[in-house]
Amino acid sequence: MSKAPISVRPPKPADEYSASQLEVLEGLEPVRKRPAMYIGGTDARGYHHLLWEILDNAVDEAINGHADRLEVSLDADRKGAAVTDNGRGIPLDVNPKYKLTGVEIVFTKLHGGGKFSGKNYQVSGGLHGVGASVVNALSEALTVQVRRGAEEWQQTYERGQATSKLKKNGATSRRGTRVHFRPDPQIFGKTLQFDLDTIRERLEAKSYLHRGLEVTLKDEKTGERWAFHHPGGIVEYLGKLVAEKGMKAIQPQPFTLERAEDPRVEVALTWTEAPEERLLTFANGIPTPSGGTHEQGLKTALNKAVRGFMAAKKIEPKGVTITAEDIREGVAALLSVYVAEPQFQGQTKDRLNNPEVAAQVEGAVRTALEQWMLDNASVAESVVGRIVLAARAREASRAASAQVSRKTAISHRLNLPGKLSDCASTDPSICELFLVEGDSAGGSAKAGRDRKTQAILPLRGKVLNAERANSAAIMGNKELQDIVSALGCGIGKDFDVSRLRYGKIFLLMDADSDGHHIATLLLTFFYRQLPGLIRGGHVYLAMPPLYRVDAGKETHWALDDVEKERLIAGLPKNVKPKVTRFKGLGEMNAEQLKVTTLDPRKRRTLRVVIEHELETDRVLNDLMGRDASMRFKYIMEHAPRADAEALDV
To answer: Would you list the DSSP string of 534-551?
Structure first.
């Protein structure tokens, strides 16, 4: 059969693309142009990441024995912060190669700092040399004060550019560095501000991780101060976490380990009666919510140590197969490692990637934990009993629950909900599932999707609140069961991420209060019933625009009012924009939905992460649970007074 010839457009003249059109971003321009590359995004998480960068620099002084006190102070409007330490102070002399002072190198040069060679810092959280300069680039104003050699020096900046020379303020008996900055509203918008509770939790964690470090938080808005000092270290931290969660430990004292040689390893671990595991890991004092090789080493050590003890004591439970997940069920553990050359995943440092650390942590923890279990045989046997019960409960649940068929090239459409518009591919690594609010939006999404890799599952109305419903209600809810069936990975004890049919799951709701409520209900369901999908980085929030702004022949899309106003303010004065507000996804046609929300090359999305397990659990319980008083309290504290008093909660 002959094929129709392929039409090829005639090439454009070569002179339309010349070297004059190429751009080179100088200095800190790349940071302001693409801030997400350096801080993960311009949302609240990125806003706080600026503070973490300056804070980690101060903590690095403490880690290496040069400081024992630091203070964080929030401006009265909470749109600015200052970090002060009593360390050595940034060098003030002029670098002969770059003809700049040490202060200017640190705050104006990407990859400039004293942490590359290992001579000034044996271990540190910031090795890329971009933290302080990125904060400077993304701040509308920054002031650095250095107390060194009995004198105080100061320099000011605006959006990465020095607005004064390094000048002497006068004599001082103190030493160290103070950095005050205000994130740039041109980058982050005018509504974001620092969250007191988030910062307080981070600072308290620092005081646990670094014994002897005194940490102070001051809120200029209220005048309140908090002091954190925990000489008990991570053992004390574990006790706090277990108590706050209401977890009941089944052993009187936790297992602890402190290894001084490189890499330094500290572990505090206990088994509880809780149905889930809770592992908090840190690398060089920085939280690693996405885990990494150090966490994998701990998990492997747990598995091998318990199996080693069972073999030594000839414990062979009949009729049940124990898995690594059974062993970790109910475990609450803190792991802190200090690595000379950490390989973090990205500048946001959510994950540690050093391959050698897995074996080093495993070797240190496995031997010590197995010996601890042998030395405390009665306690260890109660731990094994708890593990066996977990295994039996898992297998009983598996036998009682209907199994969802795994998607394969042959049977990938078995047991799938009828309203699912599936994709053609059977490769989960490229497949995406969009959970869409309403049939109308679902129709537009089906027409605008890439049929090869994108599946659409419309949802009707607001799904069941998984925080209030029992397991039977959840298993009997059709909308939630359709989601589980489509995903294919099972639920609860039957969860198996290897059976997941889609590598990315997007929650696509209207950009209004109802849409946010539905997204919150779905997130509650995923967090309570399918937390492995969130921890594995599979769950995303799609970000459809609320506004379309037509300016001449150009079309812009704005997520919210703040972005709309910023877009309009940036237009030429002689251009009168036409603004269209979408009441819902159903008002967008297939092409508009494709361009703004579905096309991977153009869409904007947010990956859902669990940054603070305990805080996430508490917030969900407060805002989605049965006790309405907590929601009332939250609304009265956070909503405008007039709006809050009009509500009947």
So the answer is: HHTT-EEEE---SEEEEE
219 given a catalytic annotation? no
> Do the domain assignments include residue 567?
no
Angle between helices 233-245 and 613-624 (to 10 degrees): 20
Q: Are residues 181 and 204 in the same domain?
A: yes
Single out the residue of 84, 112, 104 nearest to residue 179, CA to CA.
Answer: 84
Task: Please give the Cα distance from 173 to 170 (Å, whole number).
Answer: 10
CATH number at residue 453: 3.40.50.670
Which value, in Å, is the radius of gyration of the alpha carbons in the chain?
27
**How big, in percent rounded to 5, are the helix, strand and coil portions of the chain?**
40, 20, 40
Task: Say how far apart CA 452 and CA 432 lie, in whole Å.
Answer: 10
pLDDT at 20: 53
Position 27 scores a pLDDT of 67
**Whether the Cβ atoms of residue 404 and residue 398 lie closer than 8 Å to each other:** no
Catalytic residue, from 514, 591, 627, 645: name it: 514
| Beta bridge mates, 271 | 331
Gap between the Cα atoms of 176 and 66, Å rounded = 9
Please check whether residues 210 and 190 belong to one and the same domain: yes
Residue-wise pLDDT tens digits, 327-342: 999 999 999 999 888 8
**Tens-digit pLDDT profile for residues 34-88:** 888 888 889 999 999 999 999 989 998 888 889 999 999 999 999 999 999 999 9
Instruction: Give me the catalytic one of 512, 554, 561, 591.
Output: 512
The residue segments making up the domain with residue 456 are 404-544+582-610
pLDDT in tens, 520-534: 999 989 888 888 899
611 is catalytic: no
Q: Is 480 a domain residue?
A: yes
> By the 8 A CB rule, do 567 and 628 touch?
no
Same domain, 379 and 391: yes
- Residue (of 263, 253, 246, 480) closest to 357 by Cα position: 263
Cα 532–chain centre separation: 14
Q: Are 91 and 157 in contact (CB under 8 A)?
A: no
Q: How far is CA 92 from the centre of its chain?
A: 36
Residue 375: active-site member: no
- Is the model's pLDDT at 313 over the cut of 80? yes
User: How many domains in the chain?
Assistant: 4
Query: Known catalytic residue: 432?
Result: no
Which of 400, 432, 449 represents a domain boundary (last residue)? Answer: 400
- Could you tell me if 492 and 400 are in contact, meaning their C-beta atoms sit under 8 angstroms apart? no
Catalytic one of 437, 479, 482, 494:
437
> Residue range 300-307: average pLDDT?
96
Positive or negative, the Cα torsion across 39, 40, 43, 48? negative
Distance CA 409, CA 425 (A): 8
Query: Among 24-33, 138-147, 356-365, 462-471, which is the least confidently predicted range?
Result: 24-33
pLDDT of residue 614: 52
Single-letter amino acid code for the residue at 555:
T
Pairing of strands 81-85, 286-287: unpaired
Block residue for tokens 């899309």: 557
DSSP per-residue letters across 87-140: SS----SEETTTTEEHHHHHHHSTT-SS-SSSSS-SS-S--SS-HHHHHHHTEE
Amino acid at 398: R
Peptide bond into 30 cis (omega under 30): no
Residue 309 has pLDDT above 70, yes or no: yes
Cα distances from 463 to residues 271, 422, 515, in angstroms, run: 34, 21, 12
Task: For residue 551, give the nearest of 530, 571, 535, 526 by alpha carbon.
Answer: 571
In sequence order, the β-bridge partners of residue 162 are 157
